[in-house]
Every structure is written in structure tokens, then in C-alpha cells.
Amino acid sequence: VFPSLAQAQASVANEVYQELGQPSVFLFCPTEYCSSLCSPSPSQSCYLQTIGQELLPGISVIWTGPKVVSQELSAVLLEEVEAVLRRRPIIWDNLYANDYDCRRVFLGPYMGRAPGLMSRLHGLLLNPNCELQANFIPIHTLGTWFRSELGSCAHPDHAGTEAVAALGDSQGAQDGSYSPQEALELALRDWVAEINQQALEPGR
Which residues form the GH84 domain (predicted)? Predict the structure, then answer.
């Protein structure tokens, strides 16, 4: 019925999207969802070109970056993906995911994401550790990164000092930049405070 897998997927996705009344949030995960799965590259992938052309503009497309688990995300790569998909992607960030190897737990700060990335994204989803309490630092430092990004977007001439001023000097609020090390230190302080608070609760 369809000349390609991409056209089949886009057709089905479009029909479901319309049948549901074109909801404000509708996510589509392509078969080629990172650069390493594209042949020969995102911009030259016939599959992604078809998805970009055929998928209705209200449907958001998920992307994980250069790889399934991407150590770095650059604005240049996201510009390439946006051009071929004809929409800004939603990043499904697997930086902390450990479902593929539960012997590993990731407790470091959110890092490896270029400054100013927000303007190239339609959204960002964080795939966390499987262990619930191990995600305090990942989510806390993601929040710090996000606020610094919001500040930079809202006040590009002032590096976002207003938007992040409430976060304190330890997060680089003075110049609006995001420091993974400072974000980690702040997260650790808040985590210790949380642990101490929980220890005082009855039955702990």
C-alpha cells in the first residue's frame, strides 16, 4: 500500500493524531531517532526527509542526539535535525538511563549540553535511572541548567541574571552561565537537607 516505511508511519500517525482531535501534545518517535541510526546522515536520510514532509506540523518528533545515549548535544546538530524534520525536535535525553545495564547508576550533574540549546528544542524529556532516589542529583541539576537556559533566552543581553538570581551565587547566577560542578554542589547540599528531613519523620 505504501512505497516506504516512512510514508506508512506518517500516514498512521497523522490519522491517529486527527482522530484524537489534534491534541496539543502528540509525540512521534521515528525509526531513525539519533544520528548513528541515520544513513548516511540526518540531513541526507530519505527516511527522515519523508517524515519531515509527510508528518502533520502539529506532531512533535523525538530525537536522542548523536547516539542513543549522547554524551554531548550541540546546536549545530539540532539545526540539521530541525531542517530535515521541518520542526524543532523534542530531545529524549538518555544521559542518565541505566535500564540497559542496571549495574550502573549515574549520579553526576547534567552536562554536555551546549549553552543556548533551548532555542533549538521544542521540549526535553529526561530518561532517569531506574532507581528512584538516585535521580535527585540528575533532576535537580537539570532544573538548574533549565533555569539558566531560560534566563539566557529571556535576557540575552544580560545573560539571564534576573531569571536565575533566586538560585544563589553558587550556580553561576552572576553571569547567567551554567556550571555543572556548582550545580552538583548545590544539589548535594539540598539532597543532604532532604535526607536529614526524612530522618526526622516518624517511623524513619
Answer: 1-150
Cβ-based burial of 66 (10 A; exposed 0-12, middle 13-18, buried ≥19): middle
Check whether 162 has a pLDDT greater than 90: no
The pTM of this model reads 0.83
DSSP secondary structure, 62-131, as one string: EE-BSSSS-S-B-HHHHHHHHHHHTSPPEEEE-TT--TT-TT----S-S-SB-TTGGGG-SEEEE---SS
Instruction: Spell out the residues 6+ positions from residue 158 whose beta carbon is closer than 8 angstroms to its own.
Output: 176
Nearest to 91 by CA among 125, 66, 141, 138: 125
**Radius of gyration for the chain, computed over Cα atoms and rounded to the nearest angstrom:** 20
Distance CA 26, CA 16 (A): 10
The arrangement of secondary structure in 5-154+179-200, i.e. its CATH architecture, is Alpha-Beta Barrel (3.20)
Q: What angle do CA 39, 26, 146 make, to 5 degrees?
A: 85
